[in-house]
Amino acid sequence: MPQSSPARSVPALRPVPHDNRTGAYLESLQILERLHRLLLDLVKDEFERLGQSDLTPVQALLIYNLGTAEVTAGELRSRGMYQGSNVSYNLRKLVDLGYVHHERCDMDRRSVKVRLTPSGQEMRDRVAELFARHAEGLDLSGVLDDPPIETVNLQWRRIERFWAEQIRYIY
Description:
Residues 25-161 form the HTH marR-type domain. The protein has 171 residues and is mostly helical. The chain contains 6 helices and 3 strands; from the N terminus they run H-H-E-H-H-E-E-H-H.
C-alpha cells in the first residue's frame, strides 16, 4: 500500500484585535512569508510528481516570470521577474540546463540578454498549468470571493508602492 505524504500543518493564526494595526500588519507579514514558502513547496511537490528534479522552485518561478520576454539579467530584478540576490547563479544554471538562451547585447557588450528556449517554454507551461489548477480549485472553493481576490491584490499593490517609496526615500 503506497504511503501518502505527511500532511503539512499550517500554524494557527493568532487573532489580532482590530484596534491593533501594528499587530495586524505584523501578522500579515508573517502570512505573506509563509505563503511564499508554501508556494515554493507546491512547485517542488509538482516537480517531484512529474519526476523533474533538475530545477529548484526558485528557478522554475524565474522561468515562469520570464515568459516570452527577452531581457537583461538586471531587468529581471527591476521588472519584478526575480526576487533573489543570486540571479547570475540561477541564470547560469538555467543556461547550462538548456532552459534559457543568452547572448551579448549589441549595444552594450557587458550586458547579456536572456530568453527561454523551447525547453524553457515547455517548463513555463507546466508551471502555468499548476497555477491554473490552483486558481480553479480556489475559485471553486470560494476562497477567492470574500474579500474578492481583486481587492486583496489592490491592497498588496498599495503596500508594494509604499515599501518602494520607503526604499527610495532612504537613498
